[in-house]
């Protein structure tokens, strides 16, 4: 949910590059997940700037965020003083029958008259309706417009992938309050991740929603585009600028497409591998405890700057994380994990899956050491150099002065980030912060879901009490993309494909 300020439209062309099985394929110039492949019968609605929805009430003015299952658009509410709202338009094949996301949002609204402080950190369903189009009938959810996600802030910050200590605690307090409210009304979020935590816009009136950037579509064979695809693509409001976000404070926990009612437990999860809870790995029914595990993994990221579990080079099999979990969580987790694994074998739940060769988890430190080392590693890196991140969140290099160093370069062209021995000691403020964060995380990162702390219990932790947070400018938030047109490395180094447009500075 990021916005790009522009005073004029740029017509950017895309073209057809191939035909496969009589299907025309388009390659957009925007970093728009899915491109035109989502515009098929049963897929997304081909929206254009200026389209009006719900009997003329809403007028589309820009695109906020693309996705495979839905696209979020900015629209002007003509019946409410031209207020800008966000309209999440679901795919037609996800809009049939009772849509679970709508039921969850309605349940939140029905229980919204409460004094629970966590309610205000969840979205408000302003309206909903259906629109008809060439690709089918689409459910449209009208919500408040929100700002950058936690992921984009961590990646775009000039200084560090860690949030400042006071902001970390402030965000953590809001998140645990939001989760506690959801659990109190019987809802499991099911997908607490950096992409589903968005900051509220401090000064929304300063954002220029009308400055849409379009990319015109055409076909090489000269044939018409057809009704299933839009006549042009709209570039998502992709990068926040400092003029638009001077202060970051309150967040909202968003996206309930994976949520479920605890009365009807889920049995599977399709989420990022490195935040999948142990009970999902061992194919047990999921409940509110999975939210606590997900929240712990996300909290670890913005508190320390790194990832608790390494998923970048692992196969897409949850079982591959068992050695990592055992190493990080410690031997106390072994009895539950062994019992859970035996239960899987007894139920023959893993029959038909290929054999899995476990890799040793020697590089993972026990949790308490892990938190400390990762915290100071990224703190020290941020003080010396600016890190480069790939779009998967992995560190791919760094900038030292005006020189860019990439980790996939030959060894002689790739010095270490740390040019001096790492110092894992801090001042009194660091030590106090780490002690509170460690206590908070260790109660959440428990293998046995029945022994994991609840949201209500975690609300009493010092880490989320008296956060002493005062909103302040965090400095410029800028995202610089490096492509082959932007820079030329010195010979003999030739960057791999990872050094292309999939890279931004932090």
UniProtKB/TrEMBL annotation:
Q: Which GO terms describe its molecular function?
A: ATP binding; protein serine/threonine kinase activity
Q: Which UniProt keywords apply?
A: ATP-binding, Kinase, Nucleotide-binding, Serine/threonine-protein kinase, Transferase
Region annotated Disordered sits at 475-506
Its GO biological process annotations read:
regulation of RNA splicing
Keyword Transport belongs to the record: no
Q: Which GO terms describe its cellular component?
A: nucleus
Presence of keyword ATP-binding: yes
- Coiled coil feature spans: none
**Residue stretches making up the Protein kinase domain:** 58-464
**Entry's PANTHER family?**
SERINE/THREONINE-PROTEIN KINASE DOA-RELATED, SERINE_THREONINE-PROTEIN KINASE DOA
Protein name from the UniProt record: Kinase-like protein
Organism (species): Aaosphaeria arxii CBS 175.79
Query: What is the phylogenetic placement of the source species in the record?
Result: Eukaryota, Fungi, Dikarya, Ascomycota, Pezizomycotina
């Amino acid at each position: 949910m990021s916005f790009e300020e522009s005073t004029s439209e740029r017509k950017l062309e895309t073209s057809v590059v191939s035909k496969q099985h009589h299907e025309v394929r388009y390659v957009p110039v925007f970093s728009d997940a899915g491109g035109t492949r989502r515009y098929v019968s049963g897929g997304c609605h081909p929206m254009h700037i200026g389209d009006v929805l719900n009997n003329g009430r809403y007028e589309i003015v820009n695109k906020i965020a693309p996705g495979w299952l839905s696209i979020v658009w900015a629209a002007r509410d003509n019946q409410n003083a031209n207020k800008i709202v966000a309209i999440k338009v679901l795919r037609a094949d996800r809009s049939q029958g009772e849509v679970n996301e709508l039921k969850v949002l309605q349940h939140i609204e029905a229980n919204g008259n409460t004094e629970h402080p966590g309610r205000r950190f969840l979205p408000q369903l302003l309206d909903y309706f259906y629109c008809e189009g060439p690709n089918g009938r689409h459910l449209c959810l009208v919500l408040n417009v929100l700002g950058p996600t936690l992921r984009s802030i961590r990646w775009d910050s000039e200084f560090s992938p860690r949030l400042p200590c006071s902001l970390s605690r402030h965000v953590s307090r809001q998140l645990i309050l939001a989760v506690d409210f959801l659990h109190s009304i019987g809802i499991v979020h099911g997908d607490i991740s950096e992409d589903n935590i968005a900051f509220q816009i401090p000064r929304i009136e300063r954002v220029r929603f009308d400055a849409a950037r379009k990319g015109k579509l055409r076909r090489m064979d000269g044939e018409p585009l057809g009704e299933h695809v839009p006549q042009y693509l709209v570039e998502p409001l992709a990068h926040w600028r400092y003029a638009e976000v001077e202060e970051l404070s309150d967040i909202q926990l968003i996206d309930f497409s994976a949520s479920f009612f605890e009365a009807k437990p889920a049995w599977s999860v399709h989420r990022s591998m490195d935040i999948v809870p142990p009970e999902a790995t061992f194919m047990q029914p999921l409940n509110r405890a999975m939210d606590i595990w997900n929240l712990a993994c996300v909290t670890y990221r913005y508190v320390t700057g790194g990832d608790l579990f390494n998923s970048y080079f692992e196969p897409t099999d949850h079982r591959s994380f068992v050695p990592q979990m055992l190493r990080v969580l410690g031997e106390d987790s072994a009895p539950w994990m062994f019992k859970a694994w035996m239960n899987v074998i007894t139920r023959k739940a893993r029959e038909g899956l290929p054999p899995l060769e476990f890799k040793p988890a020697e590089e993972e430190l026990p949790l308490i050491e892990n938190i400390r080392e990762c915290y100071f590693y990224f703190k020290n890196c941020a003080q010396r150099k600016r890190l480069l991140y790939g779009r998967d969140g992995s560190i791919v290099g760094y900038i030292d002065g005006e020189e860019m160093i990439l980790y996939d370069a030959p060894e002689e062209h790739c010095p270490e980030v740390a040019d001096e021995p790492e110092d894992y000691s801090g001042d009194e403020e660091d030590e106090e912060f780490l002690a509170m964060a460690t206590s908070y995380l260790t109660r959440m990162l428990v293998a046995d879901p029945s022994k994991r702390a609840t949201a209500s219990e975690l609300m009493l932790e010092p880490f989320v009490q008296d956060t002493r947070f005062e909103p302040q400018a965090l400095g410029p938030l800028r995202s610089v993309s490096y492509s082959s047109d932007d820079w030329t490395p010195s010979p003999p180094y030739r960057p791999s494909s990872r050094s292309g447009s999939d890279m931004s500075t932090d």
